[in-house]
Amino acid sequence: MVDARDEQDPYIEHRRLLFATAYRMLGSVTDAEDVLQDTWLSWSTTDHDAIRHPKAYLVRTVTNISLNRLTSARATRETYVGPWLPEPLLTSPDIAADAELADSVSTAMLVVLETLSPVERAVFLLREVFGYSHAEIAETLERPEPTVRQIAHRAREHVQARRPRFDADQARRRQVTAQFMKACAGGDLNAVMELLAPEVTAWSDGGGKVTAARRPLHGTDHVARWLVGFLAKPELAALTMEPAVINGELGVLATLGGHTVGALSFDLVDGRIQNLRFQVNPEKLSGLTLDNSLALPRSGQF
């Protein structure tokens, strides 16, 4: 048996790929780490000499364990308090410079992936993000290749129809992020409104654990007034905000008393903020301490 501490162990070698697969499948750092633990348990009790392609075996195991978890998670999310958003994850700055890679891990994309069935999500990710062939995916999911091709086509069309439009201008995003933080810190309602698109929508995920809007907020005036009013609460007087690359895009981290209490991601369209996604559920902030977890190649072959 290969020791997990051995750097030549295929599990260690491909751990970033395995985490990226599980995270994109589940939208949860905690669940992705659990999947990796289950994958290691399976790997550690398997005869490695009998496995011709360890990477394929590991990706197959992660995908199928994630499918099982995602199927059961759907029922739980039906009773979730307020809007459900994926767990944010700190990523390395170089990801933000790669528009295609940044889009594949963005919060907006993870939200779109939630609208796919578990199998559609697996097929889409393996095909469109990691570059596996239909035949390889069919082997992984134990489904006929023609069926996989149909699922891949359906999933791709579904995602393309729902994928939000956004600006890729990183300089403009840095500028807007700085202006937004300054306006919020100063409680400047007019300045906040000027940064928001007329059709802006804000989602706030508190999971029933902390105060958050139970429904999406729409419109410049509504969103700006809610945001400024929320930040004006006395218990948030010591709140600080700082820029951070979250899920491949520049966003904002909020800290209070030295602890991270929230993360903001947004879509920038025509130089204005189109969608705001606030993650403030304390149970979904562990990924904000895992830097560089998604700094890895997009694709790989079995």
Query: How many runs of DSSP E, i.e. beta strands?
Result: 6
Amino-to-carboxy terminus distance:
22 Å
Mean pLDDT: 88
Give the SSE order as H and E letters. HHHHHHHHHHHHEEHEEEE
Which bin fits the share of residues in helices?
40-55%
How are strands sequenced across the largest beta sheet?
A: 2-1-6-5-4-3
Describe the structure.
The protein is an alpha+beta fold. Helices cover 49% and strands 15% of the residues. The protein has 13 helices and six strands. The protein has a six-stranded mixed sheet. A hairpin with a 2-residue loop joins strand 5 and strand 6. The protein is elongated. The two termini are 22 Å apart. 38% of the residues are buried.
Helices, strands, pairings?
Blueprint: H1 10-13, H2 15-26, H3 29-44, H4 54-77, H5 93-96, H6 99-105, H7 107-113, H8 118-129, H9 134-141, H10 145-162, H11 170-185, H12 189-195, E1 196-205, E2 217-218, H13 220-231, E3 240-246, E4 249-256, E5 259-269, E6 272-279
Parallel strand pairs: 1-6
Antiparallel strand pairs: 1-2, 3-4, 4-5, 5-6
Helix pairs in contact: 2-3, 2-4, 3-4, 8-10, 9-10, 11-12, 12-13
Features:
six-stranded mixed β-sheet; disordered N terminus; elongated; 6 strands; 302 residues; alpha+beta
